[in-house]
Amino acid sequence: MQKTTAPNNELERVTMQRVAWRLLPFLLLLYIISWLDRVNVGFAKLQMNDDLGFSETIYGIGAGIFFVGYGLCEVPSNLLLVRFGARAWIARIMITWGIISIGMMFVEGIYSFYIMRFLLGVAEAGFLPGIIYYLSQWFPREHRAKAVSWFMIGIPLSLVFGAPLSGWLMQHMDEVMGLHGWQWMFLVEGVPAVILGFVVLGFLTETPAEARWLSAEQRSWLTKHIETEHQEAHARHGVNLRAALTHPTVWLLAIVMFCCQTGSYGLTFWVPTIVNGLSGYSEVEVGLFSAVPYIAAALGMLLVGWNSDRTGERFLHVALPSLLGALGFIAVGYMHVPALAMLALCVAAVGDYSTRGPFWALPGKFLVGSAAAGAIALINSMGALGGAIGPSTVGWLRDQSGGFLGPMLMLSGVLVAGAILTMRLRHSPMLRD
């Protein structure tokens, strides 16, 4: 690509600033709602397990089975997004997952719990890879890690805001109108997804060429820049959909994402339980303290994503945070002093979540079009498998040992493996600049 002149640099700066302010806050809001609806079962557990007679293993399986449905439907969902357009398909995803999330309030036993969690995963499948694909149509390669990091801070922010809200609803709405607090939580937190699903139809713009909120010059520059990148990637690598789904680099990326997601979901679904065991606080207090690691994680994600784009380096920006997260998990297992355990949770959260922006900048180096959509969905499907294995294994190990040391050591080992495999990715010719 030719070196840009000073006027083009200014055009790029103004255009990307406009695109970022238009799209990222809204997409961030959608992801906050998405993540909260998939993980708020971790807060519901504080009451629901006793109300419904669930063991730690039953809860862990139910938390993880979401990702079975999610993983099975990721690739077809993302291919349908390419066919029908991001705006319509993302709206469909949000409306259906919101309805099913509300339906979680009617769970009465083990099988209804498993079925509803599975269906929630089916409904939400394709949302994250769909947004990653959508961002690749709007943000050039040199802006992508920062953009993905801004979007994906929805993960920790969903718990920064959602944890106190969930705790308040469960404590203060318990037995109101004959409903348990956890039932009110599912109802109140599921409604925004349905409403925002309809907002998506009117707010999202499909492609830069259709963006009337950009000037003609800005639309032309961004459209040509993105098209040039895609043409270069296709000319350099020529990977079609079938090749992408079987390519060794795609599968190695998928395994790395499996490791990262095993760690993050293994943590997220159990943070309220860990905090409750350390403190014995009320639901509201547990919610407030559970938000602390995710405040740290949000700051870490932005810093790592910014530095990755600034330097152009991706691999160390995934591997080193993974190792940091591994150390945090080990410390969580050994710490019993509440303040030190909270610090360890912060380190684990910062390390694991900070990998996301740099990681998701990698597939766009060699994949475009339907190949990118399918491969991103496949990679995220493996991440979903980690979401199924992480929480359920933590629950099983905790039932066996009665504590969190074994589970945390397991999660630490998985993150170390992810760091090692990330450095192996540096040797892939597909990912060389």
Outline the secondary-structure elements:
Elements: H1 6-39, H2 41-52, H3 56-84, H4 86-103, H5 110-124, H6 127-136, H7 141-152, H8 154-172, H9 181-203, H10 216-237, H11 241-246, H12 248-268, H13 271-279, H14 283-290, H15 292-311, H16 316-334, H17 338-353, H18 356-360, H19 369-401, H20 405-425
What average pLDDT do the residues reach? Answer: 87
Rg (C-alpha, Å):
21 Å
Shape: globular
Instruction: Predict the CATH topology.
Output: Growth Hormone, Chain: A
Name given to the CATH architecture: Up-down Bundle
The succession of helices and strands, N to C, reads HHHHHHHHHHHHHHHHHHHH
Alpha-beta content class? mainly alpha
Q: How is the biggest beta sheet arranged?
A: none
By CATH, the superfamily comes out as MFS general substrate transporter like domains
Low-confidence stretches: 1-5
Q: What share of residues are in beta strands?
A: under 5%
Cα-to-Cα separation, first versus last residue: 12 Å
Secondary structure: helix percent: over 70%
CATH class: Mainly Alpha
Number of domains: 1
Total helices: the number is 20
Structure write-up:
The chain has one domain (7-431): MFS general substrate transporter like domains (Growth Hormone, Chain: A), CATH 1.20.1250. The protein has helices at residues 6-39, 41-52, 56-84, 86-103, 110-124, 127-136, 141-152, 154-172, 181-203, 216-237, 241-246, 248-268, 271-279, 283-290, 292-311, 316-334, 338-353, 356-360, 369-401, 405-425. It is globular, with a radius of gyration of 21 Å. It is built from 20 helices and no strands. With 433 residues, it is mostly helical.
